[in-house]
Amino acid sequence: MTSRFRSARLGASAVIAAAAIGLVGAPAAQAAPVGTVNGDFEAGNTGWSSFSTPFGGAQLINASSAYPARSGSWKAELGGRGFTGVNRITQQVTIPANRVPVLTFWLRVPPQGPGGLAYRELDVEATAPDGTPYLLASRTNKDGNGAYEQVTVTLPDAFFSTTEKTAILSFMVVEDSANKVPFLVDDVSMAYRLKIVRPWFPPVLNF
């Protein structure tokens, strides 16, 4: 091997190694990501937007003792009011660069009484920066056992980016007048795992 090719090869290897170090090391230097705001609902509606039809006065985030929270006093109570309509709470979250978002929340569906035939469903969605909604999880009133259940779901690749992005979380119930069993949501959190993209090294050529 000539000295010229040896020098060029060593120089290229140094550049590739430096790039690899930068690619892997840069995300680790980020500040700790912030998850959801008021995920335990103890500050009431802070951080959340509520939507309810046909009656807009329903207090979806409340401290009612009829259906207790998992922790503290407050939780989101979606559906269970005995009329046909939609209950929804949403929050915008920031997804840091090079992070994989993982959503965790606790859900309680009180058991349905004898003869309950109505069907109702909770849909948990995340809307990507391009406006596309993705269904993350769903539960029906037939899943109720009276206990809080932890639900954890990793958001799809559409929410991963090399730059900081925002997304909208949504918990929604469409109910009917025949079913008064609510879906109770509490302790919502978003964790961000570091995704390391392994660098590609070109094959070494022997001269």
Task: Give a structural overview.
The chain is elongated, with a radius of gyration of 24 Å. The chain has 207 residues and is mainly β. The protein has one helix at 3-28; strands at residues 49-53, 61-62, 75-78, 85-95, 99-108, 121-127, 133-140, 148-154, 165-175, 183-194.
Strand coverage percent: 35-45%
Order of helices and strands: HEEEEEEEEEE
Shape: elongated
Instruction: Work out the helicity level.
Output: 10-25%
Question: What is the tally of beta strands?
Answer: 10
Q: Tell me the structural class.
A: mainly beta
Q: Mean of the pLDDT scores?
A: 80
Overall radius of gyration: 24 Å
Largest sheet: 5 strands, antiparallel
**Spatial separation of the terminal alpha carbons:** 6 Å
> Strands across the major sheet, in which order?
1-4-9-6-7
Uncertain runs: 1-32
Count of runs of 4 or more consecutive helical residues: 1
Provide a concise account of the structure shown:
The protein is mainly beta. The protein has one helix and ten strands.
Main features:
207 residues, mainly beta, five-stranded antiparallel beta sheet, 10 strands, disordered N terminus
